[in-house]
Amino acid sequence: MIVVISGVSGSGKSTIGRLLSERLHCRFYDGDSFHSQANIDKMSRGEALNDADRAPWLQAMARAIRHWIDIEENAVLACSALKKSYREILLDKADDTKLVYLKASAAAIEKRLTQRQGHFMKAGMLSGQFEALEEPTETEAIIVDAELPIETIVSSLSEKFSTNLPELDS
User: Fold this and answer.
1) What residues are paired with 29 via a beta bridge?
2) What are the backbone dihedrals phi and psi of residue 144, each rounded to the nearest 5 degrees, phi first?
3) Which of 23, 32, 74, 102 has its CB 3.0 to 4.6 Å from that of 7, i.e. a possible disulfide?
């Protein structure tokens, strides 16, 4: 099973994804590592990515998800997946994939981003993320209040997914 942790930048995807993967004894992958250097450079300058910039990034993650499923690797992937069309690319032919959406208010996320150091995503780009966001429905994703304590979120997800994984990879 592949668990995709989605949400805007600063919602806790990487932190929750890493902790969840530890609890589930599986690998963690950060969607940021699938970006091209050109995309990272663009975001570092405070410029938002467009759909053309994101297309190769999404395809790379979709190929990785299919590969993990093919080799029967359980994994957690942190990826914004802001639009429905992005999620369709990621989850195409990936029946063993579950989507988690970390939902939080713009004010809470902005506060987190202003405190974050050393990340290429700048707090000033947050409004564009919320403008692009097409929230998944409860039938498409497990919707989690990202303003809850991290331990509460990770424990809840760990309990939910550990019962769904017949064999956990070490």
Assistant:
1) 77
2) -120, 135
3) 102
